[in-house]
Sequence to fold (323 residues):
Amino acid sequence: MKKLFMLMLMCSVLSLSVFASGEKEKGSVSYPNSPVTIICPYSAGGGSDSVSRAIAEAAKADFPKGIAVENRTGGAGSVGMSYGMHAKPNGYMITMIAPELVMLPHTGTGGDINFKKFIPIIMVNSGYAAITVSSDSPYKTLADFVAAAKEKNLQIGNSGIGSIWHLAGAGFEQAAGIEMIHVPFDGSATAITSLLGNHIDAVSVSYAEVQSQVEAGKLRTLAVLAPSRLPECPEIATVAELGYGDLSIGTWRGFSVPVGTDPVIVEYIKTSFEKAAQTDAFKKFMKNTNNAIDIIPSDKFATKITNEDVYYGKLIESLGLSK
Fold:
């Protein structure tokens, strides 16, 4: 009887010790007790890098051993996403993901990346495409533009063959039942410069990238390819409102961990990043850098990624760009 009492006492002491140490009962997970790294698959100084660093800064109080961003570039983002996908599923390597996660595999240029090997944590930012023309263009409305495209070959610029803005222009083209000449440039900036010089008829890059020129009166956005009007330009209608189908195409940025990560850790990161995205510091940074905050929680984010995989697969195949 005495031995039984001593055994029960030892078990009680052990339970109290685990509780006091902060370990979770499920799987006895203690997290985080080491530095955490966010893998950004794009170059330092770019939008993806700055958003990753902003979320890390806003969440640092929840990571007492430190949280930092590491850039692993190449392959239009596939190198860094592959690196994060193959990381140990222990929560110490978080990967920033973007639409290329579901676009590149369909073109055969994504290496081994597979969205099904990630657990989406949260999406924090989006930038939807816009059909934009020069301010002195004869096309005052989207209807004008579509009517002209049915009569002649209009040229629409994008940021490169197979890029998200190429797919945006092609998606709109199919939804409107028109054919255009897609002109690839080395990035959005050069496409916009060409539009300003009236060398092309329009661009299908993000509204954020043309916003300053629109506000300066040099460009005119005819519509946005977004699920609803954008807060930064509420006067500009969506293509859906104008009768061209439920079309939403744009870039986004979110965070993920490898499949197999303990649910307790996933929940910890999710809660921390959701809280970080609501801080005044993060909101101020995003506003100052012209990055739209668009919070989508884990389950809905996962659904969005799955749906885009199907949509982009069909669109890329229709353009003859599939592997």
User: Anything to note?
Assistant: The two ends are 72 Å apart (CA to CA). Residues 1-27 have pLDDT under 50 and may be disordered.
